[in-house]
Amino acid sequence: HDPLTIGSSEFHSRLLLGTGKYGNLSQMQRAIELSGTEMVTMALRRIESHESQDGQNQQEQLLDFIPRSKQLENAACRPVHFMPNTSGARNAKEAILAAELARELLSTNFIKLEIHPDPWHLMPDPVETFHAAEKLVQKGFQVLPYIHADPVLGKRLEDVGVAALMPLGAPIGSNLGLRSRDFLEIIIQGTKLPVIVDAGIGSPSDAALAMELGADGVLISTAIATSADPVKMAVAFKKAVEAGRMAFLAGLGLKGQIGEGSSPLTDFLG
Amino acid sequence: HDPLTIGSSEFHSRLLLGTGKYGNLSQMQRAIELSGTEMVTMALRRIESHESQDGQNQQEQLLDFIPRSKQLENAACRPVHFMPNTSGARNAKEAILAAELARELLSTNFIKLEIHPDPWHLMPDPVETFHAAEKLVQKGFQVLPYIHADPVLGKRLEDVGVAALMPLGAPIGSNLGLRSRDFLEIIIQGTKLPVIVDAGIGSPSDAALAMELGADGVLISTAIATSADPVKMAVAFKKAVEAGRMAFLAGLGLKGQIGEGSSPLTDFLG
Amino acid sequence: HDPLTIGSSEFHSRLLLGTGKYGNLSQMQRAIELSGTEMVTMALRRIESHESQDGQNQQEQLLDFIPRSKQLENAACRPVHFMPNTSGARNAKEAILAAELARELLSTNFIKLEIHPDPWHLMPDPVETFHAAEKLVQKGFQVLPYIHADPVLGKRLEDVGVAALMPLGAPIGSNLGLRSRDFLEIIIQGTKLPVIVDAGIGSPSDAALAMELGADGVLISTAIATSADPVKMAVAFKKAVEAGRMAFLAGLGLKGQIGEGSSPLTDFLG
Amino acid sequence: HDPLTIGSSEFHSRLLLGTGKYGNLSQMQRAIELSGTEMVTMALRRIESHESQDGQNQQEQLLDFIPRSKQLENAACRPVHFMPNTSGARNAKEAILAAELARELLSTNFIKLEIHPDPWHLMPDPVETFHAAEKLVQKGFQVLPYIHADPVLGKRLEDVGVAALMPLGAPIGSNLGLRSRDFLEIIIQGTKLPVIVDAGIGSPSDAALAMELGADGVLISTAIATSADPVKMAVAFKKAVEAGRMAFLAGLGLKGQIGEGSSPLTDFLG
Fold first, then answer.
1. Which residue has the higher pLDDT, A30 or B63?
2. N or C: which end of chain C has fewer CB within 10 A?
3. What angle do CA D88, D91, D96 make, to 5 degrees?
4. Does the beta-carbon distance from A235 to B244 stay under 8 Å?
5. Which residue out of D21, D70, D93, D112 is catalytically annotated?
6. What pLDDT is recorded for position A159?
7. Contact at 8 Å (CB) between D194 and D165?
8. pLDDT tens string C139-166
9. How far apart are CA C62 and CA C76, in angstroms?
10. How many C-alpha atoms does D151 have within 13 Å on its Cβ side?
11. How far is CA C37 from CA A162, B128, C32, C194, D188, in A?
12. Greater pLDDT, B241 or A172
């Protein structure tokens, strides 16, 4: 028994999934189901835009996914939490508005706070994110801010009362892995909050490494959704996250520079 | 169904285990059982020295491990192959002698060929290994040579008729991971033989990475045996190897330098 | 002719030096002289504390260093700019106060803005740094903020009107090199400001790499000051910065995965 | 005074240059001159093929380069040694033949031994290289074998009596840098021979790093010859090699994981 506690909620899976970029919704549902995830995130923008368009003409509706998820929960015998995100917000004001809409639409206090004025690398804005987080906490949200792997920003957000930190490993969608590794380690050592590595993870080995370093969870989106076989890849990530977590708990050996051999090196053959 | 074929044998697990450095034999047995491994390696030197000492005064006999392994196989409902190694041999002559003794003692044609005159880093000798491999193949062995991650040596050993290549990731027992990564990739691309990464793997994420690069298996020894909880660590490696293999089969995404985001970036709340 | 322009000033050296941690002042002066640097930074705190103590009882006064620097300039036939820094400031208010004191004491508009509430890794606070930079620019300072390698923060500081960006490579004093490499590259690509890599550079090869990536300069402190031979190390960094800059200007070759050889591979001795 | 001694010769430069891939010979000559190199290597195959063709119809003759090098030596006030290499040889026999031809043509005992049966990555063959080195040493050559970064092979070649080791950093022509870094460090620590890193170095920072690790020299070919400005790049490498060597001699600081700051962290403005 090794639950992940975020705010007042407990999760048994440490793998969070995104919902963008899948080829189709049934593929996404199947990936979500087999990944064992209990938290999926979705851009409020996307939910909202579908609603305003009324979406009648699209065969597969994104919002359908939510009611259908009940079936999924039944099948999987576990709840799947929907964590809306504010992706697309360019400043604190837009993000707060998005969060409030999301709370109404989805009846959840969780909000993944993403503010990226930069349309190129989608990197988060530390100043706007900090100010938005402050306000959202005051408004009763459980805030999970997407941030650069900046230990001081993480510490300040902790002081403000966010529910978890979501530092990036590399640019979103880049599959580059833990390019911010040293800084992630400092964040993990320095905070009491859950740390969920959020962007850049491109392969199960990256996810396992994040967990071995002591991260509490990882969020995977592009690496699963754009795989040639998203369902198989989802299972691969499930296993990798479990592997990394178990290794963290079991305790990894020290790294040496000089091999000592795995067998006693007394003389051979007498 | 995705078997690993080495010589004329088929395996369902791609995780090979060493037998050195465990705190005690029951821990080792349990780790072997839960890891799902079907191949364990053991220094002939150790088997042999126990025999010559008659070993009566030791409570836990290494050779006991072999008959007891039958129980283990019964429990695990799968065979566990014992692959003797020539660890401790300093040249081709010693290695060949060790291989022949091993074949008699263990009734197996498999031999993990290790020749390391260097007592410090236990790195393999390419010249002696090549010459020993040539002779052992002629003598009907299925040879799995432990080598530096040297693509040309790998190619020449393939020409000679070895059963698999076992290049190192880093010095034995160092837990440093895939420090030879670029060269492992070249080996994997260039050979038709199974490639089993042999030394240096320190964590499940390393093992997953090896599999993602296309390795056919990994051999883990120190990283499991010296963990504070070898049994949990064995399960972690099991999952990681499966994760890496599944990701390799599913197809990993390309790495970019520039994020594209996981959601369409049309205007927000517009 | 390849000057580095920061604000309204032109420099011929791209190597900036710190003044802390030297064994003694004459060693520091000699290192400064032979490094060819034209910009040295000094904690206002240190200047100030020496003044308030009147410093009579210390043989080597830090403030002596400033008048003596005139001799140094004469010897070196070039001016050395003193760039005060606000190291030790824990928030914007303290930093602004320090900057104003520094301007009075040293008659310079340059201020290296450092705000690090964290006494452990001395990492910069993005929110306080942003707000202090805004105010200091309004007060007519040429602000060089020390920041995490955060591209969005860099962009926002550019919009505010700072004179250069000083992102970190690794924690101050760690000698770990460019652990933020990917993010430094994004900063360099995205800004029109000079980028001076500020912390973590531990060796000349790190400095050369920063310049090859397109950084406009590097600031070196610990790696020179704590070397067994700071003067020789200062010259080593001088050469490395020049080497990296020349390579950047000459244009580095593409990295391949597959060798093509440096000689035509027609048949041999045919 | 810090000479590099190879066999019975002393060199003041630690930068060796190749001669392939240059756009034209005058560019090559100028690069050689300004690099300060005292050792250049050239494929015997190329020398030989030009001779057999009589080469009258080519405006710029490769062999012209040799007599012209006398002018170069006069201009540079230092001798430039020509070190023929056996590039293109696929086995020991071809390499030995090439070495003997080279000795006759160029009146030098130095031979850079390269045997690469693999036309793809041009990686060296350890077995053939070992056997050829043995014979060439017996024949009175000063042998500099190009090898994989294999510490045991290096040790065995040292026992045989070669003059220096030339391990690779990465595949020839790849510009990938020191991908074999850990193994280069083991080689350097374990041998009394000069170690000259031979292939893969793509930038001055790579060269500086090799020297900082304790390499005695580097050989650069593709990275200079294929630069848009080979002459400037040659100077960049000259400075980088000097920087790395000076840093090695001065003593690099330890790498930490936790910053200690470059200024005393007593209270600020207190």
1. A30
2. N
3. 85
4. no
5. D112
6. 97
7. yes
8. 999 999 999 999 999 999 999 999 999 9
9. 20
10. 25
11. 45, 54, 6, 17, 33
12. B241
Structure confidence by residue, pLDDT tens digits, A195-233: 999 999 999 999 999 999 999 999 999 999 989 999 999
- Chain D contacts of B190, Cβ < 8 Å? 118, 120
Distance of residue B242 Cα from the nearest chain A Cα, in angstroms:
7
Q: Which residues of D touch A185 (CB under 8 A)?
A: 257
Residues in Cβ contact with C128 at an 8 Å cutoff, skipping those fewer than 6 apart? C91, C92, C95, C115, C117
Are the C-beta atoms of residues A47 and A63 closer than 8 Å to each other?
yes
User: What whole-number distance in Å separates Cα of residue A159 and Cα of residue A191?
Assistant: 10
Please confirm, yes or no, whether B112 is among the known catalytic residues.
Answer: yes
Contacts of D206 in chain C (CB under 8 A): 205
% of chain C beyond a pLDDT of 70: 82
Structure tokens at D231: 């002459």
Cα–Cα dist A7/A110, whole Å: 9
Find how far residue B71's CA is from the centre of its chain: 23
Q: How confident is the model at residue B69 (pLDDT cuts 50, 70, 90)?
A: low
Residues of chain A whose beta carbon is less than 8 angstroms from a beta carbon of chain D are 182, 185, 257
Q: How many Å is the Cα radius of gyration of chain D?
A: 20
Catalytic pick from B21, B70, B93, B112? Answer: B112
Q: How far apart are CA D240 and CA C250, in angstroms?
A: 14
- Structure-token pair, residue C255: 């990295």
Query: Is the pLDDT assigned to residue B77 strictly greater than 80?
Result: no
Q: Which residues pair with A213 in a beta bridge?
A: none
Share of chain D above pLDDT 70, in %: 82
Q: Coil, strand, or helix at residue D211?
A: helix
Closest C-alpha among D194, D197, D192 to residue D179? D197
Give residue D200's identity as a one-letter amino acid code: G
DSSP structure string for D97-110:
HHHHHHHHHH---E
What tens digit of pLDDT does each residue of B143-172 get? 999 999 999 999 999 999 999 999 999 988
Q: Give the closest-approach CA distance of A257 to chain D in angstroms.
A: 8
How many C-beta neighbours within 10 Å does residue A139 have?
Answer: 14
Distance between the two ends of chain A, CA-based, in angstroms? 50
Helix A126-138, helix C151-160: angle, nearest 10: 100
The Cα B243–Cα A206 span in angstroms is: 11
Q: Which helix (H) or strand (E) holds B15?
A: strand B15-17
- Residue B263: its pLDDT value, please? 46
Contact D174 C257 (CB under 8 A): yes
Q: What is the pLDDT of residues C76-104, one digit of tens each?
A: 666 788 889 999 899 999 999 999 988 88
Model ipTM value: 0.89
How many CB atoms neighbour CB A36 within 10 A?
21
Candidate from A105-114, B38-47, C190-199, D85-94 with smallest mean pLDDT? B38-47
Residues of C in contact with B257 (CB under 8 A): 182, 185
Predicted pLDDT at C79: 77
Chains touching chain A at 3 or more Cβ pairs under 8 angstroms?
B, C, D
- Note whether A137 and A162 are within 8 A (CB): yes
Indicate the SS3 state at residue A5: strand
pLDDT category of residue C261 using cuts at 50, 70 and 90: very low
- Letter for the amino acid at A8? S
Q: Which residues lie below 8 Å from residue B98, measured CB to CB, with a gap of 6+?
A: A268, A269, B44, B45, B48, B84, B86, B88, B89
D4-250: which CATH topology?
TIM Barrel (3.20.20)
Neighbours of chain D (3+ CB pairs under 8 A): A, B, C
Given a contact cutoff of 8 angstroms between Cβ atoms, the answer to whether D82 and D73 are in contact is no
- Helix (H) / strand (E) element for A219: namely strand A217-220
Q: Where are the beta strands (DSSP E) in C178-226?
A: 196-197, 217-220
Of C90, C182, C184, which to mutate for an interface test with A (greatest number of A Cβ within 10 Å)?
Answer: C182
